[in-house]
Amino acid sequence: MTPWNPGEDVIAVQRGPEPGGAGGAYRSFGETLRGLKTTFARVIEGTNTIQYPEEKVPVYPRFRGRHKLHRFEDTGLEKCVGCSLCAAACPSDCIRVVASENDPENRVSAGERYAAVYEINLSRCIFCGYCEIACPFDAITMGHDYEMSDYNRSDLIFTKEMLLAEPIDRTPLRNEGE
Amino acid sequence: MDPVSKVSDYRKLEESVTLSTVEGPLGASGSDGASTELFTLNMGPHHPATHGVLRLLVTLEGEVVRDLKPIIGYLHTGIEKTAETKSYWKVIPVIERMDYLAYFFNSMAYCGAVETLLEVEVPKRAQYLRVIHMELNRIMSHLVWLGTAALDLGAMSMFWYCFRERETILDLFEQSTGQRMHTRYFQIGGVIEDIPVGFAAKLKYLTDEMPRRITQYEALLTKNEIVLQRLRNVGVVDEKTLLGLGVTGPLLRATGNPWDLRKAAPYCSYDDFDFKIPVGTVGDNYDRYRVRTAEMRESVKIIEQAMEGLPEGPHITEDRKIALPPRHELATSMEALIHHFKLVTEGFRVPAGEAYHPIESPRGELGCFVRSDGSSKPARVHMRDPSFVNLQSLSTMVEGSYIADLIATLAMLDPIIGGVDR
Q: Which CATH number fits domain B79-384: 1.10.645.10, 3.40.50.300, 3.40.50.1100, 1.10.10.10?
């Protein structure tokens, strides 16, 4: 079998000089100086780091952070109807939904049923955003919070109330196209 | 022997060891009086120079490596088995987490295999978007390699420079896909979303900037005497041995064999682009370094061409049996809602059969084998990960060389332990 021939599409990389010898003695100074020139020229470019806890990196609109559950703005009813589609879509099985029938006198959601229990185990979540894609009612979306560390694993199981509440500290957000 | 006495025997042995100087160590001394005693050193698993949790059992004679055995499995995640329990689209975010520096490649190999089984046509725009993201990923992966490999040789500033550019690329990933790593951007039949407004401008900035940056890296490293002394003629393995071991990627190309799947078996519209395959001559660490930096330049060229020729059209297949319907249809079309429920809860069924889809990852041939039994979950998913295969060549590379060169060679090999152990 003849080996595959790529034809003109190959370029050979340069071999570089043999180390040591007179050339090596020159390079110990010459090339080191060139390297130093490269590094010192970077000084005027300024710093790229930010002072993290005080200064936060703004995230893009598509960024997938901690989940949020939503209510209808006019009626205040929950958008979630407890269909469990998010739990079905979750690859890490971190969402638990227990649905209940709505009481017509005292409605929780706009649909027939509502989520009596809605828990997300954030220590299992991989932030793939499949729940957001799966939800047909836009009831769950991925928010922009990325600071979620805690001291206890049990504190990372977010209940419905926690997911419905506005986050205390808002993450800076970039505009579309910025 | 019962386990209790086994442990107590070991403790007795341990207590018998004294820290006093031993006259004439074990093993015969050579004619010149130098000790020829062999010494077994356990390097890792928690060692910064092993680039992950890799354990190397090294047999030394003085400073010279006589035998090396990589012991793997410390990062075993069972992803291949996990994939068998999930429906096809839910496998994507899981399988991306194997080789954690080449997530777009992992999902591309998997999606490619499933698309072959489904015989689904991927729209041209999706293919170009995939190429853009994969080549960005290749540059990003090579930057991490360059930074950490140079750090192993003592070039600290290289690390910061490489990670600065990597940050720009991760920023682009966040803008277009929503996440910096493990983006689940590639879906079966296309990509999940089109690129956002402003992405093209940022990408243009990067592709303009990147060749200048690579020139700066080369000014620092290429002819530096320390780098030359540490890399040139170190870890030489000839082409035949590497082919016998099944090594692919930049390691094989450094020996002069131009095997690149992007050219040899074009997938994902790679034949539309004009780029070259950089090859080395000898196959030492220096050639590996030159091949990879040259590859970054070629990747920049591919991205520029793909962005320029980005065709209009859908970003995912229109086949409603495979791809989720667009969101705005959910509120108006009952049919779309039914498809949506069906795809999310059960997923699509894939005709029974087997498919292997090899692609060129930053480390070599990354192939995904998928076997379907006709249900909505894959019966078997196996990845041929290049890191795992390439790691086998480490002992042939370093036998007879100094232990300090072992560190340099391991860095130039660029194994990703997440891909080795899977």
A: 1.10.645.10
